[in-house]
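Weekend entry, working from home. Most of the wet-lab plans are on hold until the incubator is repaired, so I used the time to fold the two sequences that have been sitting in the queue since the last round of cloning. Logging both here for the record. First:
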Amino acid sequence: MRWTGISSANKERVVEAIRGGIPKAVKTIGWLLKLIIPISLAVRLLQYTGLLDYIAQFLHPVFQAVGLPGASAIAFVCSLFLPLYAPIAIIGTLHLTIREISILAIMCLISHNTLVESAVQKKTGSSFWFVWFLRVGMSFVAAFLWNQLLPEDMGMSAGQTVALEELTFWPMLLDWGLGALKLCLTMALIVTGLMILQRLMEAFHVMDWLAHFFAPFMRVMGLSKDSSFLWFVANIIGLTYGSAILIEQMENKRLSVADARMLNNHLAISHSLLEDTLLFVAIGVPLFWVTVPRVLLAMAVVWVLRLLRVR
């Protein structure tokens, strides 16, 4: 590798960023995998035994009250424990309108992967159960509001109508194992890259510029200006992949515990505005309805909690 045109001081900054980023990434990856692997296996076993369908039946009346068919409860229950790829796969097997998918999308975007992501938020200063109940509760509040606001005729879904493949036990376990391996490799690459990128941004003062740029928006949202960079990270790459940066920032006391909790309250409702949102846009959900109202709802939650002095 040639370093043509780069000063010796900048070379040293790059080397130090790599040296400092890798150990932190390894530590965070190990912690995440201890959570993700058993949770994903447990959910796959629940799916295989049919218990997940049984659990979802209890939610049928609630879902019908927010304009959704009872079968959509299965997708939502899956989203509580897994990343969005699983509920989207289930949505593809249901005969839903774009309006129904939009309502279900906002619920899944707020409440997906809650066990892992609530654990991340606990590491950054919040109560696990407070964040978990906030996310699940607000997903139903959002569904109720969306059911009132969305136009009645938004068209039909062009999703798949093929039933999910029925697998016997060992092929199911193999399928889970291959998926888990792919997830581990993807996570290792992304988290390591992000940790190195963060240190490079610190070394070249990019983080200071980002914090300064986003600071005015934080005040409008009811958040501390010091939380601007973490807000940016969580909304671009999400809570799971961005966990290494979020946790390290808190360990280095870049944000007070009180400000971190308020940021977590916002992120509980609105985060990963890029990748997660585009997954639903790809299956026909209008971009506006899964972005702007979600950010506004998160802002409203923060201001209400401030007024109630819940920190």
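Second, folded right after the first finished:
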Amino acid sequence: MERIRQIIHLDLDAFFCAVEELRDPALIGKPFAVGGRPNERGVVASCSYAARGFGIHSAMPMSQALRLCPQLIIISSRHGNYEVASQKVMAILHELTPLVEQISIDEAFLDVSDISEPAEVFARRLQTRIKEETGLPCSIGVATSKLVAKIATDVGKKARRGSGPPFALTVVPPGSEADFLAPLPADFLWGVGPKTSARLAEMGIQTIGEIASFPEYELAARFGKNGKEMIRHARGIDSSPIITSYPAKSYSQETTFARDVKDEAELRKTLLELASRVSSRLQEDDLSGTTIKLKLRWPNFITITRQTTLSQLTDDTEMIGGMAQQLFEKVWKPGKAVRLLGVGISGLAPSVHQLSIWDVENPQDERLNDVIHELEGRFGEGIISRGLSGQDLGNHATNPKLRRS
């Protein structure tokens, strides 16, 4: 009998905020954000679920977040704490299987095809164990591929959206991948970004199911090899392996000024231009990164570097440029001359985040809600529930239908 792949995608819920709540339980239930100070042009790195209720989301300028929620509590990032917490979670994963692909500080894929118990039961036990041993909530998607498992996590988190961590578990049984994907918006697929999505819309294609049923030769004629890949993904076909390690790699761009520059506007413009070039290289290679780096050289040739690590992968120009400027503000004083500026990114992994439907508010919420209702109608009502406690796990039978909890 052919071996059926079982892939788990795990995403720690509002990771930075969850770590901060462990440090200070008084924050639980309050609107707060982790990131830079508003008077320093800081941005939101992560925000609590209470803050999200005000429309705040990651990558938003902190000044804008404060306008939306004047009582917002702002907490400076403690990346050392986040790294330690991440390592504890990843250690649990590696204890269970060597086939772990960590794609960011708070996200990973696992191949559990050789696990003897049903993947759903394994996933529930894993979810509960992480919560009990680290205090951190997580959401999980289970499917036969990385593509579908990742999308399952996103859909599950959206379905459990509320005032607290979703703690969602979404299982897509083997053979139901295409049905699960069909009603979802086209840009949920890897490789379908804003430009591709717009071109698909011009062709009358709005959903993944419409991509799957579109004539392959015509899609290939319009999008080349990406068209063929799009069809495969839309049908739930993805054989990409778990990659347990990546070559040490980073991208960077820098410029040495012809004359030392003191003008703040010019320095900031240069940082954004460098970030744009880094972003373009990432997108060309279908990669994203987590650690943004700033390089700065003074006229006396003393060179300094600073870096910060994000909670999620990015290839976005604004995010890279914004974080580079935030680092710049911490080391540069008005009127001080600069000889060289550089922007870089490391912690690279294949891009898997075309759309974030939990951490960032987006105009497709209403459409996705309709999709969730359609999935419930197709697979049965009552399939959305919270993850079970450890005590409940032993009594919970495996449901052969699509289940989201």
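Plan for Monday: verify the second prediction. The two ends are 30 Å apart (CA to CA).
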